Amino acid sequence: MRERQPADLLLFAAVVVLLALGVAMVFSASSVKALVEYGDSLHFLKRQLLWAALGLGIMFFTVEVDYRAYRRLAWPALLLSLVLLLLVALTGPRIRGTKGWLELGFFNLQPVEVAKLALTTFLASYLDRRQKAIRSFWPGVAVPLMWVGLVVALVMLQPDFGSAMVIVGVAFLQLFAVGARLQHLVLVGLAGLPAVAALAVLEPYRLRRLAAFLNPWADPRGSGYQTIQSLLALGSGGLSGLGLGQSRQKFAYLPENHTDFIFAILGEELGLLGTTLVLLLFFIFLWRGLRIALLAPDFFGSALAVGITVMIAFQALMNIAIISGALPITGITLPFISYGGSSLAISLAGIGILLNISKQAT
Predict the structure, then answer these.
(1) Percent helix, strand and coil across the chain, each to the nearest 5
(2) Taking the model in full, what pTM does it have?
Protein backbone atom coordinates (compact mmCIF):
# COMPACT_ATOMS: atom_id res chain seq x y z
CA MET A 1 0.00 0.00 0.00
CA ARG A 2 1.28 3.47 -0.79
CA GLU A 3 2.55 5.40 2.21
CA ARG A 4 0.22 8.31 2.85
CA GLN A 5 1.90 10.28 5.61
CA PRO A 6 5.08 10.57 7.66
CA ALA A 7 5.63 8.44 10.73
CA ASP A 8 4.11 9.54 14.04
CA LEU A 9 6.65 12.17 15.10
CA LEU A 10 5.10 12.74 18.54
CA LEU A 11 5.51 9.08 19.47
CA PHE A 12 9.06 9.13 18.10
CA ALA A 13 9.88 12.28 20.09
CA ALA A 14 8.51 10.79 23.33
CA VAL A 15 10.65 7.67 22.88
CA VAL A 16 13.79 9.66 22.08
CA VAL A 17 13.35 11.82 25.19
CA LEU A 18 12.81 8.70 27.33
CA LEU A 19 15.90 7.12 25.79
CA ALA A 20 18.06 10.21 26.40
CA LEU A 21 16.79 10.48 29.97
CA GLY A 22 17.51 6.79 30.45
CA VAL A 23 21.12 7.11 29.27
CA ALA A 24 21.67 10.01 31.69
CA MET A 25 20.10 8.11 34.58
CA VAL A 26 22.03 4.90 33.86
CA PHE A 27 25.27 6.88 34.14
CA SER A 28 24.18 8.65 37.30
CA ALA A 29 22.79 5.56 39.04
CA SER A 30 25.57 3.16 38.03
CA SER A 31 28.71 5.30 38.33
CA VAL A 32 29.54 4.28 41.91
CA LYS A 33 28.91 0.57 41.31
CA ALA A 34 30.87 0.70 38.05
CA LEU A 35 33.85 2.37 39.73
CA VAL A 36 33.91 -0.11 42.60
CA GLU A 37 33.43 -3.26 40.52
CA TYR A 38 35.16 -2.36 37.24
CA GLY A 39 37.42 0.56 38.10
CA ASP A 40 35.64 2.65 35.47
CA SER A 41 32.68 4.86 36.39
CA LEU A 42 31.65 4.89 32.72
CA HIS A 43 31.44 1.10 32.35
CA PHE A 44 27.66 0.79 32.27
CA LEU A 45 27.22 4.06 30.38
CA LYS A 46 29.45 2.84 27.54
CA ARG A 47 27.52 -0.42 27.21
CA GLN A 48 24.16 1.36 27.36
CA LEU A 49 25.26 3.80 24.64
CA LEU A 50 26.31 0.88 22.43
CA TRP A 51 22.95 -0.83 22.91
CA ALA A 52 21.09 2.43 22.35
CA ALA A 53 22.96 2.95 19.07
CA LEU A 54 22.24 -0.65 18.02
CA GLY A 55 18.59 -0.31 19.04
CA LEU A 56 18.17 2.93 17.09
CA GLY A 57 19.73 1.26 14.06
CA ILE A 58 17.24 -1.61 14.35
CA MET A 59 14.40 0.90 14.79
CA PHE A 60 15.36 2.83 11.64
CA PHE A 61 15.48 -0.51 9.79
CA THR A 62 12.10 -1.78 11.01
CA VAL A 63 10.42 1.56 10.31
CA GLU A 64 11.19 0.98 6.62
CA VAL A 65 9.96 -2.64 6.53
CA ASP A 66 6.29 -3.09 5.68
CA TYR A 67 4.71 -4.43 8.87
CA ARG A 68 2.72 -7.00 6.87
CA ALA A 69 5.94 -8.97 6.40
CA TYR A 70 5.80 -9.94 10.08
CA ARG A 71 2.59 -11.88 9.47
CA ARG A 72 4.65 -14.52 7.65
CA LEU A 73 7.44 -14.40 10.23
CA ALA A 74 5.16 -14.78 13.26
CA TRP A 75 5.33 -18.57 13.53
CA PRO A 76 9.12 -18.88 12.97
CA ALA A 77 9.76 -16.05 15.45
CA LEU A 78 7.61 -17.70 18.11
CA LEU A 79 9.26 -21.09 17.61
CA LEU A 80 12.71 -19.49 17.77
CA SER A 81 11.81 -17.72 21.01
CA LEU A 82 10.57 -21.02 22.50
CA VAL A 83 13.86 -22.69 21.61
CA LEU A 84 15.82 -19.83 23.15
CA LEU A 85 13.75 -19.93 26.33
CA LEU A 86 14.29 -23.69 26.66
CA LEU A 87 17.99 -23.29 25.95
CA VAL A 88 18.49 -20.62 28.58
CA ALA A 89 16.56 -22.66 31.15
CA LEU A 90 18.81 -25.68 30.51
CA THR A 91 22.20 -24.07 29.95
CA GLY A 92 22.08 -20.42 31.01
CA PRO A 93 24.26 -19.22 33.89
CA ARG A 94 22.41 -18.55 37.13
CA ILE A 95 22.67 -14.84 37.96
CA ARG A 96 20.99 -13.63 41.17
CA GLY A 97 18.99 -16.86 41.30
CA THR A 98 17.68 -16.64 37.73
CA LYS A 99 18.76 -18.27 34.48
CA GLY A 100 17.71 -15.40 32.26
CA TRP A 101 20.68 -14.80 29.97
CA LEU A 102 22.43 -16.64 27.15
CA GLU A 103 26.14 -15.86 26.90
CA LEU A 104 26.91 -15.18 23.23
CA GLY A 105 30.52 -14.14 23.43
CA PHE A 106 30.66 -10.36 23.44
CA PHE A 107 27.14 -9.86 24.80
CA ASN A 108 24.39 -11.58 26.80
CA LEU A 109 20.96 -12.16 25.24
CA GLN A 110 17.80 -12.20 27.33
CA PRO A 111 15.45 -14.58 25.45
CA VAL A 112 12.38 -13.46 27.39
CA GLU A 113 12.63 -10.06 25.68
CA VAL A 114 12.64 -11.75 22.27
CA ALA A 115 9.68 -13.89 23.38
CA LYS A 116 7.59 -10.85 24.37
CA LEU A 117 7.73 -9.30 20.89
CA ALA A 118 7.48 -12.67 19.11
CA LEU A 119 4.39 -13.67 21.11
CA THR A 120 2.72 -10.31 20.52
CA THR A 121 3.33 -10.67 16.77
CA PHE A 122 2.10 -14.26 16.78
CA LEU A 123 -1.13 -13.33 18.56
CA ALA A 124 -1.76 -10.54 16.04
CA SER A 125 -1.19 -12.97 13.15
CA TYR A 126 -3.31 -15.73 14.71
CA LEU A 127 -6.22 -13.41 15.46
CA ASP A 128 -6.00 -11.83 12.01
CA ARG A 129 -6.60 -15.25 10.43
CA ARG A 130 -9.53 -15.97 12.74
CA GLN A 131 -11.30 -12.64 12.93
CA LYS A 132 -14.78 -14.19 12.78
CA ALA A 133 -13.99 -16.53 15.66
CA ILE A 134 -12.56 -14.01 18.11
CA ARG A 135 -15.85 -13.70 19.98
CA SER A 136 -16.02 -17.47 20.58
CA PHE A 137 -14.25 -19.09 23.51
CA TRP A 138 -12.19 -21.90 22.03
CA PRO A 139 -10.51 -20.39 18.95
CA GLY A 140 -10.76 -16.79 20.14
CA VAL A 141 -9.38 -17.10 23.67
CA ALA A 142 -8.47 -20.64 24.74
CA VAL A 143 -6.15 -21.57 21.86
CA PRO A 144 -4.08 -18.36 21.82
CA LEU A 145 -3.80 -18.47 25.61
CA MET A 146 -2.47 -22.02 25.39
CA TRP A 147 0.48 -20.62 23.45
CA VAL A 148 0.81 -17.88 26.04
CA GLY A 149 0.81 -20.56 28.73
CA LEU A 150 3.60 -22.44 26.97
CA VAL A 151 5.77 -19.32 26.83
CA VAL A 152 5.02 -18.55 30.48
CA ALA A 153 5.88 -22.13 31.52
CA LEU A 154 9.30 -21.83 29.88
CA VAL A 155 9.85 -18.40 31.46
CA MET A 156 9.04 -19.85 34.89
CA LEU A 157 11.75 -22.48 34.41
CA GLN A 158 14.29 -19.67 34.78
CA PRO A 159 12.38 -18.67 37.04
CA ASP A 160 11.21 -15.15 36.15
CA PHE A 161 7.88 -14.46 37.83
CA GLY A 162 7.84 -10.76 36.91
CA SER A 163 8.28 -11.31 33.17
CA ALA A 164 5.69 -14.09 33.28
CA MET A 165 3.14 -11.71 34.77
CA VAL A 166 3.95 -9.08 32.14
CA ILE A 167 3.45 -11.62 29.34
CA VAL A 168 0.11 -12.77 30.76
CA GLY A 169 -1.14 -9.23 31.34
CA VAL A 170 -0.16 -8.05 27.87
CA ALA A 171 -1.77 -11.09 26.21
CA PHE A 172 -5.07 -10.54 28.04
CA LEU A 173 -5.10 -6.84 27.16
CA GLN A 174 -4.25 -7.52 23.52
CA LEU A 175 -7.02 -10.11 23.22
CA PHE A 176 -9.55 -7.79 24.87
CA ALA A 177 -8.54 -4.85 22.68
CA VAL A 178 -9.11 -6.75 19.44
CA GLY A 179 -12.56 -8.01 20.41
CA ALA A 180 -12.38 -11.07 22.66
CA ARG A 181 -15.30 -11.32 25.07
CA LEU A 182 -14.56 -9.96 28.52
CA GLN A 183 -16.45 -12.80 30.21
CA HIS A 184 -14.24 -15.36 28.46
CA LEU A 185 -11.09 -13.61 29.64
CA VAL A 186 -12.45 -13.27 33.18
CA LEU A 187 -13.33 -16.97 33.20
CA VAL A 188 -9.81 -17.97 32.16
CA GLY A 189 -8.31 -15.49 34.60
CA LEU A 190 -10.30 -16.88 37.51
CA ALA A 191 -9.36 -20.43 36.52
CA GLY A 192 -5.69 -19.45 36.52
CA LEU A 193 -5.72 -17.59 39.85
CA PRO A 194 -4.92 -20.69 41.97
CA ALA A 195 -1.84 -21.39 39.84
CA VAL A 196 -0.67 -17.76 40.16
CA ALA A 197 -1.26 -17.84 43.92
CA ALA A 198 0.67 -21.11 44.23
CA LEU A 199 3.61 -19.73 42.25
CA ALA A 200 3.59 -16.59 44.41
CA VAL A 201 3.72 -18.36 47.78
CA LEU A 202 5.38 -21.77 47.24
CA GLU A 203 8.84 -20.26 46.78
CA PRO A 204 10.08 -18.89 50.12
CA TYR A 205 11.64 -15.76 48.59
CA ARG A 206 8.39 -14.85 46.82
CA LEU A 207 6.45 -15.35 50.04
CA ARG A 208 8.91 -13.04 51.80
CA ARG A 209 8.44 -10.44 49.08
CA LEU A 210 4.67 -10.66 49.48
CA ALA A 211 4.99 -10.20 53.24
CA ALA A 212 7.32 -7.25 52.67
CA PHE A 213 4.78 -5.70 50.30
CA LEU A 214 2.10 -5.88 53.01
CA ASN A 215 4.40 -4.46 55.70
CA PRO A 216 8.02 -3.72 54.70
CA TRP A 217 8.76 -2.27 58.16
CA ALA A 218 8.24 -5.68 59.74
CA ASP A 219 11.67 -6.70 58.40
CA PRO A 220 13.45 -3.44 57.54
CA ARG A 221 16.91 -5.04 57.21
CA GLY A 222 15.72 -8.10 55.31
CA SER A 223 12.80 -8.61 52.93
CA GLY A 224 11.50 -5.05 53.40
CA TYR A 225 14.86 -3.36 52.86
CA GLN A 226 14.59 -2.72 49.13
CA THR A 227 11.07 -1.32 49.31
CA ILE A 228 11.98 0.99 52.18
CA GLN A 229 15.12 2.28 50.44
CA SER A 230 13.12 2.84 47.25
CA LEU A 231 10.49 4.87 49.09
CA LEU A 232 13.21 6.85 50.89
CA ALA A 233 14.78 7.70 47.54
CA LEU A 234 11.48 8.86 46.07
CA GLY A 235 10.55 10.82 49.17
CA SER A 236 13.88 12.56 49.56
CA GLY A 237 13.65 13.96 46.04
CA GLY A 238 10.90 16.40 46.96
CA LEU A 239 9.57 18.64 44.21
CA SER A 240 12.67 19.25 42.12
CA GLY A 241 15.09 16.59 43.39
CA LEU A 242 18.61 16.64 44.78
CA GLY A 243 20.07 17.29 41.33
CA LEU A 244 21.32 15.01 38.56
CA GLY A 245 24.16 12.87 39.87
CA GLN A 246 23.49 13.81 43.52
CA SER A 247 21.72 10.63 44.65
CA ARG A 248 22.69 9.26 48.05
CA GLN A 249 20.87 5.94 47.65
CA LYS A 250 23.17 4.85 44.82
CA PHE A 251 26.03 4.54 47.33
CA ALA A 252 25.22 0.85 47.95
CA TYR A 253 21.99 1.60 49.81
CA LEU A 254 19.52 0.68 47.07
CA PRO A 255 20.22 -2.60 45.24
CA GLU A 256 19.63 -2.84 41.47
CA ASN A 257 19.61 0.95 41.33
CA HIS A 258 20.55 1.11 37.62
CA THR A 259 18.16 -1.65 36.48
CA ASP A 260 14.91 -2.53 38.25
CA PHE A 261 14.99 0.42 40.68
CA ILE A 262 16.30 3.19 38.47
CA PHE A 263 12.98 5.05 38.74
CA ALA A 264 13.65 5.53 42.47
CA ILE A 265 17.02 7.14 41.72
CA LEU A 266 15.35 9.30 39.09
CA GLY A 267 12.80 10.45 41.66
CA GLU A 268 15.56 11.19 44.17
CA GLU A 269 17.62 13.25 41.72
CA LEU A 270 14.90 14.90 39.62
CA GLY A 271 12.05 14.94 42.15
CA LEU A 272 8.34 15.01 41.49
CA LEU A 273 8.92 17.08 38.35
CA GLY A 274 11.16 14.39 36.88
CA THR A 275 8.88 11.48 37.71
CA THR A 276 5.88 13.40 36.36
CA LEU A 277 7.76 14.02 33.12
CA VAL A 278 8.41 10.28 32.75
CA LEU A 279 4.75 9.48 33.41
CA LEU A 280 3.71 12.11 30.86
CA LEU A 281 6.05 10.69 28.23
CA PHE A 282 4.71 7.17 28.74
CA PHE A 283 1.16 8.55 28.57
CA ILE A 284 2.00 10.21 25.24
CA PHE A 285 3.47 6.93 24.03
CA LEU A 286 0.34 5.02 25.07
CA TRP A 287 -1.97 7.60 23.48
CA ARG A 288 -0.12 7.68 20.17
CA GLY A 289 0.32 3.91 20.10
CA LEU A 290 -3.38 3.26 20.60
CA ARG A 291 -4.17 5.94 18.03
CA ILE A 292 -1.96 4.12 15.52
CA ALA A 293 -3.83 0.90 16.33
CA LEU A 294 -7.19 2.59 15.70
CA LEU A 295 -6.06 4.07 12.37
CA ALA A 296 -4.18 1.02 11.09
CA PRO A 297 -5.23 0.02 7.56
CA ASP A 298 -6.02 -3.61 8.44
CA PHE A 299 -6.79 -5.91 11.36
CA PHE A 300 -3.26 -7.32 11.60
CA GLY A 301 -1.75 -3.84 11.82
CA SER A 302 -4.25 -2.85 14.48
CA ALA A 303 -3.67 -5.99 16.57
CA LEU A 304 0.11 -5.68 16.24
CA ALA A 305 0.12 -1.98 17.14
CA VAL A 306 -2.00 -2.47 20.23
CA GLY A 307 0.14 -5.44 21.28
CA ILE A 308 3.43 -3.54 21.03
CA THR A 309 1.97 -0.47 22.72
CA VAL A 310 0.57 -2.44 25.63
CA MET A 311 3.74 -4.54 25.90
CA ILE A 312 5.82 -1.46 26.67
CA ALA A 313 3.26 0.60 28.57
CA PHE A 314 2.13 -2.25 30.82
CA GLN A 315 5.70 -3.08 31.82
CA ALA A 316 6.37 0.59 32.57
CA LEU A 317 3.24 0.74 34.73
CA MET A 318 4.26 -2.39 36.64
CA ASN A 319 7.78 -1.10 37.28
CA ILE A 320 6.58 2.27 38.56
CA ALA A 321 3.95 0.58 40.75
CA ILE A 322 6.65 -1.67 42.27
CA ILE A 323 8.99 1.24 42.95
CA SER A 324 6.22 3.21 44.67
CA GLY A 325 5.18 0.23 46.81
CA ALA A 326 1.86 -0.40 45.04
CA LEU A 327 2.90 -3.92 43.92
CA PRO A 328 5.20 -6.58 45.39
CA ILE A 329 8.79 -6.57 44.16
CA THR A 330 9.47 -8.56 40.99
CA GLY A 331 12.30 -8.29 38.49
CA ILE A 332 10.76 -5.76 36.09
CA THR A 333 12.80 -3.07 34.34
CA LEU A 334 11.57 0.32 33.15
CA PRO A 335 11.49 0.42 29.31
CA PHE A 336 13.97 2.83 27.64
CA ILE A 337 15.34 3.98 31.03
CA SER A 338 16.70 0.94 32.89
CA TYR A 339 20.10 -0.48 32.02
CA GLY A 340 19.81 -3.55 29.79
CA GLY A 341 20.70 -4.29 26.19
CA SER A 342 18.20 -6.94 25.07
CA SER A 343 15.22 -5.07 26.49
CA LEU A 344 16.29 -1.78 24.90
CA ALA A 345 17.02 -3.25 21.48
CA ILE A 346 13.76 -5.23 21.33
CA SER A 347 11.71 -2.27 22.54
CA LEU A 348 13.20 0.00 19.88
CA ALA A 349 12.57 -2.67 17.24
CA GLY A 350 8.92 -2.61 18.31
CA ILE A 351 8.87 1.18 18.07
CA GLY A 352 10.08 0.93 14.48
CA ILE A 353 7.22 -1.43 13.67
CA LEU A 354 4.75 0.96 15.30
CA LEU A 355 6.10 3.86 13.26
CA ASN A 356 5.80 1.85 10.05
CA ILE A 357 2.14 1.15 10.81
CA SER A 358 1.61 4.86 11.51
CA LYS A 359 3.02 5.73 8.07
CA GLN A 360 0.26 3.66 6.48
CA ALA A 361 -2.61 4.73 8.71
CA THR A 362 -5.95 5.42 7.07
Answers:
(1) 70, 0, 25
(2) 0.95
